[in-house]
């Protein structure tokens, strides 16, 4: 990590470009995760259901489907996407947002996620440093992008994302990377129990469920990474982000009362707390001290 820091000091522009490109490459892979992971889980459920219900297995075995196989293809014509058609952002621009074989429109979300991942990776490393903490912050951002986009699509925030983040946060803060181990453990407890309590109070008063259990685990993960002090800030920020985005969607025609995933708002708030939490808290304390 010392060599990376030295390289970034000698070649700051090249360092930023390399981090940006790396982030966009990761974003390209995250697009695969976001699309394929829910399908993989659904197929796993079907296999488990057949086992529990003692149903016969299909006559033809399912082809291999995971994050690596089969190779990516156009969903409209099954054209296999070649390497030159899979370069983050550049291929989308070169193809003018269309399949090279059938001219079907390629969703703009793919390059948007690639660019967002690249920029957030660069921002995390630039603000936190070209060191182990910066790398860990980038990893946190990558997992949050995948988990929150899947939650946005499916309304599920999966344990495969939240629980590893929780344990990784506790593990790295054993070495006090972002906070002390004591604050990390307390943060995990406060993060989980705060939303858990709101969930049960809201259900008691309204008969409805305002959150999912994945939201509890994600906030617990943020507490494990950033300490209990960051939990109130993340709750406030996620509520504000949710109000702004939800209000905007209603203005754009979204049906009132339609359920919305809360995970993306928690993820946005968590990234803000990771990158600027101390500055926001300091500014607030200065403001109320006037």
Short summary of the structure?
The protein is mostly helical. 69% of the residues lie in helices and 0% in strands.
Structural class: mainly alpha
Indicate the proportion of strand residues. under 5%
Sheet of most strands: none
Number of strands: 0
Number of separate helices: 10
Shape: globular
| Cα-based radius of gyration, to the nearest Å | 21 Å
Helical residues, percent:
55-70%
Characterization of this structure:
Helix 2 (12-52) packs across helix 5 and helix 4 packs antiparallel against helix 5. The protein is globular. 69% of the residues lie in helices and 0% in strands. The protein is mainly alpha-helical.
What are the salient characteristics of this protein?
globular, mainly alpha, 290 residues, 0% strand, single chain
List the helices and strands and how they pair.
Blueprint: H1 2-10, H2 12-52, H3 90-94, H4 109-128, H5 132-154, H6 159-172, H7 181-206, H8 213-226, H9 230-251, H10 263-289
């Amino acid at each position: 990590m010392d060599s990376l820091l030295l390289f970034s000091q000698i070649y700051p522009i090249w360092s930023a470009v390399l981090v940006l490109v790396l982030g966009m490459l990761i974003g390209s892979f995250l697009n695969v995760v976001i699309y394929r992971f829910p399908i993989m889980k659904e197929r796993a459920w079907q296999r488990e259901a057949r086992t529990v219900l003692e149903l016969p297995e299909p006559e033809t075995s399912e082809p291999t489907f995971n994050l690596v196989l089969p190779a990516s293809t156009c969903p409209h014509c099954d054209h296999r996407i070649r390497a030159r058609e899979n370069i983050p952002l550049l291929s989308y621009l070169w193809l003018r947002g269309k399949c090279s074989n059938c001219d079907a429109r390629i969703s703009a979300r793919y390059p948007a996620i690639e660019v967002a991942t690249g920029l957030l990776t660069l921002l995390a490393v630039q603000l936190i440093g070209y060191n182990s903490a910066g790398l860990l912050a980038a990893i946190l951002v990558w997992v949050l992008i995948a988990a929150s986009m899947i939650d946005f699509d499916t309304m599920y925030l999966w344990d495969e994302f939240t629980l590893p983040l929780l344990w990784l946060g506790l593990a790295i803060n054993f070495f006090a990377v972002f906070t002390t181990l004591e604050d990390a453990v307390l943060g995990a407890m406060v993060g989980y129990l705060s939303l858990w309590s709101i969930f049960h109070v809201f259900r008691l008063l309204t008969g409805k469920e305002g959150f999912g259990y994945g939201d509890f685990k994600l906030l617990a993960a943020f507490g494990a990474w950033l300490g209990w002090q960051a939990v109130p800030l993340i709750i406030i920020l996620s509520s504000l982000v949710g109000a702004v985005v939800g209000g905007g969607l209603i203005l754009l025609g979204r049906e009132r009362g339609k359920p919305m995933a809360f995970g993306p708002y928690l993820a946005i708030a968590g990234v803000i707390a990771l990158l600027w939490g101390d500055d926001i808290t300091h500014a607030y304390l200065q403001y109320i001290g006037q």
